[in-house]
Design goal:
- This protein has 12 helices and 8 strands.
- By secondary structure, the protein is of the alpha/beta class.
- The chain has 2 domains: about 150 residues, Rossmann fold; about 100 residues, Arc Repressor Mutant, subunit A.
- A 4-stranded mixed sheet has the order 3-4-8-7, sandwiched between helices. A two-stranded antiparallel ribbon has the order 1-2.
- Helix 4 packs antiparallel against helix 5, helix 9 packs across helix 12 and helix 10 packs across helix 11.
């Protein structure tokens, strides 16, 4: 929709739909993609966009890999929207490059393509003409970025207004990543300690006092906690306090000062600093996006 947008002055792009075979392709929900042709179009395209990928376990067929590499070699911009980044990564185009994809695929992508510098906060990444994006909404952000790159800010703003979307969003992908409660561990004593801490987030906790409560030495408690959770005690406690902060921002209208006190941050400034570092947006921005009412 963005690339085929028609402005009164001129068309922005000459958009062609391509399938590897050049024939119609069945998509999800009984949709049928009617292409303008096959991979021969990639030999002359200025921008090649892979708008998604159907199976993360499946590498593109050799003809498509070759066409993507050849397009890149002659200087075309190559774009992977959302899981489309997988096609670029399978083709080897992202080796040593920064890239983004949907947050749900973070661990899978890192395991498959350790040579790619994955940025899981970015809505989209442009590394020397190799452009990748996060999920659906970020795909729109990325396409508007491409409009802005080739036609300027004024034109991108016009297209954004036509689409009834913002021309640029702040905050990155981190604010949309689900933050589930840490699961129980295999260590019963640590599980009991985690339950206790969640019920007493407001209080100040020291490792020595918690070790005594668990009937362990400080060293033993620290080792057991790290082994069970994969984090230091303080990292885990801050994460839990931030999780509770997010819940309160979404479900209440309590001011940040009250929330800081309830979850155990010594000052509202400390809460804001930790929150911004973790989520890339401020508590007030989080509430505006996900809360019932703004502050």
């Amino acid at each position: 929709m963005i690339f085929s947008a028609q402005l009164p002055e001129h068309a922005l792009f000459d958009l062609k739909i391509v399938t590897s075979s050049g024939t119609a392709l069945a998509a999800e929900r009984a949709l049928l993609v009617q292409p303008d042709g096959g991979l021969e179009w990639l030999a002359k395209a200025d921008i090649v966009v892979v708008p998604g990928w159907h199976d993360l376990n499946e590498s593109p067929e050799p003809q498509l890999v070759a066409a993507l590499r050849q397009a890149r070699q002659r200087g075309a911009h190559v774009v992977g929207l959302c899981y489309g980044a997988y096609a670029l990564a399978y083709a080897g185009l992202l080796d040593g490059k920064r890239a983004s994809t949907h947050w749900m695929a973070e661990q899978d992508f890192k395991l498959r393509f350790p040579q790619v510098q994955l940025d899981m906060n970015a809505l989209y990444v442009d590394d020397d003409g190799l452009i990748t994006s996060a999920g659906t909404g970020a795909g729109l952000d990325c396409c508007l970025y491409i409009v802005r790159k080739f036609h300027g800010q004024k034109t991108a703003n016009k297209v954004a207004r036509m689409m009834v979307v913002p021309p640029h969003r702040e905050g990155g992908q981190a604010q949309f990543i689900e933050q589930p409660v840490a699961p129980s561990t295999q260590d019963a004593r640590i599980n009991q300690m985690m339950d206790y801490l969640r019920q007493h987030l407001k209080e100040t906790h020291s490792v020595d006092a918690l070790a005594q409560r668990a009937a362990m030495s400080r060293r033993t408690f620290t080792r057991h906690f790290s082994k069970a959770t994969g984090m230091t005690f303080m990292e885990w406690l801050i994460n839990e306090r931030l999780q509770r902060t997010r819940e309160l921002l979404e479900s209440t209208t309590l001011p940040v000062e009250s929330i800081a006190d309830l979850v155990g941050f010594k000052t509202p400034t400390s809460l804001r600093q930790h929150f911004k570092s973790k989520n890339q947006v401020s508590p007030s921005e989080w509430r505006r996006t996900f809360g019932r009412k703004s502050e």
